[in-house]
From TrEMBL:
The lineage of its organism: Bacteria, Pseudomonadati, Bacteroidota, Flavobacteriia, Flavobacteriales. SUPFAM superfamilies: Clavaminate synthase-like. InterPro entries: Phytyl_CoA_dOase-like. This is Phytanoyl-CoA dioxygenase family protein. It comes from the Bacteria. Its cofactor is Fe(2+). Transmembrane segments: none annotated. GO terms for molecular function: 2-oxoglutarate-dependent dioxygenase activity; iron ion binding. Keywords: Dioxygenase, Oxidoreductase.
Length: 268
């Protein structure tokens, strides 16, 4: 029987790691999950993605966004085993500690499986889509296997949360071109590194990031968990994506009030 006790054991962050996150708005952390736990969730999440995936269109016929990954949401509602990962106190406490807040709620989870031969994930900032009132948001990016550069690991523009230009762009060809052009004339460091098995990154909602193509013959399997401050309130949406997210991930939440829907439990 696989033991997943590590999911509720604390992961100690050093003060310099918290400082690094606040300066750069991303951090990569090694040995967050052990090999047995990672393999357990690789199998469980892969099985559920295979069951739910409805994308049958050939890669070459899809848009840039469609080529980037297979995307499935809130798997915690679909599978008890996956819920154990999403509700992990270990992962949620890291999110809370990095943001230096009292605790976090779930915004939603997301499986991002980049197929063999899958294309780039264009430059973007996640919070463009979120009707959230503050920047106290963070995403745990959890590769379900070691992820070399050839597989398309996450890339970061360190500290680029300070850039306002480009925040209005939805993910796609336009965001890739315009944001890359903007980043080239700044001093923000472009960080592209492989991920070891069990290594996880955390990044804020407004930091710009992308991923390369998967040039291997294997699926790049990633699970993500998006956290927000447990006191987060809903703001007036400013684009269609935020309206959709309000209805989908924060059902019943009211503008100006704490987002306390059944889909947004406090995880830590």
């Amino acid at each position: 029987m696989v033991t997943t006790e590590i999911l509720n054991q604390p992961y100690s962050l050093k003060p310099e790691q918290i400082d690094f996150y606040h300066q750069n708005r991303y951090i990569k952390l090694k040995n967050v999950l052990d090999a047995e736990t990672l393999n357990h969730f690789n199998l469980a999440i892969s099985k559920k993605v295979n069951e739910l995936n409805k994308e049958y269109q050939p890669l070459e016929e899809r848009s840039t966004y469609g080529k980037a990954f297979l995307q499935l949401f809130n798997l915690w509602e679909q599978d008890k085993a996956i819920k154990e990962l999403i509700f992990s106190k270990r992962l949620a406490k890291i999110a809370s500690d990095l943001m230096q807040i009292e605790g976090v709620r779930l915004y939603h989870d997301q499986a991002l499986f980049k197929e063999a031969g899958g294309g780039i994930t264009p430059w973007h900032a996640d919070q463009h889509y979120w009707p959230l009132s503050t920047d106290k948001t963070i995403t745990a990016w959890i590769p379900l296997q070691a992820t070399p550069l050839e597989m398309g690991p996450l890339e970061f523009s360190a500290g680029s949360h300070e850039i306002l230009e480009g925040r209005e762009l939805s993910i796609g060809d336009d965001s890739e071109v315009q944001i890359e052009k903007r980043l080239k004339v700044t001093d923000y460091k472009h960080v592209i590194e492989p991920f070891d098995a069990g290594e996880i990154s955390y990044h804020s909602g407004w930091v710009f990031h992308r991923a390369g193509a998967n040039t291997t013959n294997q699926m790049r399997k990633v699970m993500t968990i998006i956290y927000m401050d447990k006191h987060m309130t809903l703001k007036e949406p400013t684009n269609s994506g935020q309206i959709n997210d309000w209805k989908t991930w924060c059902p019943g939440a009211k503008i100006g009030e704490v987002i306390n829907s059944p889909l947004n439990p406090v995880l830590y």
